[in-house]
Amino acid sequence: MTTPAPYPIGTPGIAWGPAERAAWLDRQKVLRSYADDVLSRIEPLRARFDVVEYGRLDYPPHSYPLFAIRSGDWNDALPVVLVTGGVHGYETSGVHGALQFLEQRAADYAGKINLIVAPCISPWAYERIHRWNRDAIDPNRSFRADSPAQEAAALIDLVAPFRERVLLHIDLHETTDTDESEFRPALAARDGEHYVPDEIPDGFYLVDDSEHPQPEFQDAVIAAVAQVTHIAPADANGEIIGSKVFSPGVIRYPLQKLGLCAGVTDARYRTTTEVYPDSPKATPEQCNAAQVAAVCAAIEYALT
C-alpha cells in the first residue's frame, strides 16, 4: 500500500496551533459566489414564501447573511418540516437541491405542512468549496449548546421556537472524491492524528439515527431516489464509509451525540442524504434531482 504524503501544513502527529491555522486560512481562496449562485435564486422566492434573515456570519472583512425560506401561510396546527443544505459548503447539490425543491416542488405541500428551508448554512465555505468554516471548524460536528461554529449556532437559534414540533428533518449532503484527497487528510493533520485512507462509496446513501432508527422511512426515501440515480453498494465488509449497512444504502450514526445537523431537533423522522457527484454514472443535474426526490419522498412518508 502506498503511504499517503504528509499534509502540507503542520507536523505529523502534532495538532495545529495558531500558526498552522493561519497558514491553512491563507490557502483558502474564493472560487464561486454565494450572492450569484444562492442569493439570486432566493430573491424570486419572496413572491411565494416568507424569506427571513436568521443570522449573519461575521468573518472580517466580510459578513454573510443567512436566509431561511418558510411557508407564508404558517399554521401552528400543521407539522413542521425542516430542510437544510450546505452545512458543508463544498457539497454543491445540498445547496442547489434545496433551492430546486423550493422552486419546483414545495408548492405541492402547501396547506399540509409548515415548511422551513435553510439552503446554504455555510456560505463562507460554499464560496471556497470547503468543508470547514473560516475557523477550521466542521459545522457538522458542532450542532450542540455553546457551539463553536457560528453557522451551527445560528441554525440552533432559528429552530428553537418550534424545535419540539418538527416532524421531519432532512439534511442534504454529498460524499466526494475530495473527502479523501483533501478533507480527511486535513482533519488528521489538524488534530495531530494518523490519516488512514478509506473507500469512497459510489452512489447515493442515507444516514439514519442510531438512537432512534426509522428503517421503513429510510427505505422509502431510498426507493424514491433509486428512480433518479444509483444507490451506493456496501463494500466487501458490508459497510459504507466504515459503518454497517442496515438495508440497501442506509447506515446509522448517533446524530445528536456527534453534533450533526440532522440531530438539531427531536424530529421523529431524521435523515442525512449523501450523493456522489464524482461518479461516472451521475451528473450534477441527477444529483440535484436526487436531493429533490429524497425531500419529497421523506415528506410524503412522514405525512402518511
From TrEMBL:
SUPFAM superfamilies registered for this protein in UniProt: Zn-dependent exopeptidases (SSF53187)
Cofactor(s) demanded: Zn(2+)
Top-rank lineage group of the source organism: Bacteria
PROSITE patterns: PEPTIDASE_M14
Keywords on record: Hydrolase, Metal-binding, Zinc
Biological-process GO terms, alphabetical: proteolysis
GO molecular function: hydrolase activity, acting on ester bonds; metallocarboxypeptidase activity; zinc ion binding
Domain spans labelled Peptidase M14: 30-304
Keyword Zinc (UniProt): yes
CDD domains on file: M14_REP34-like
Similarity comment: family membership: Belongs to the peptidase M14 family.
Stated name of the protein: Succinylglutamate desuccinylase / Aspartoacylase family protein
Originating species: Dokdonella immobilis
Taxonomic placement: Bacteria, Pseudomonadati, Pseudomonadota, Gammaproteobacteria, Lysobacterales
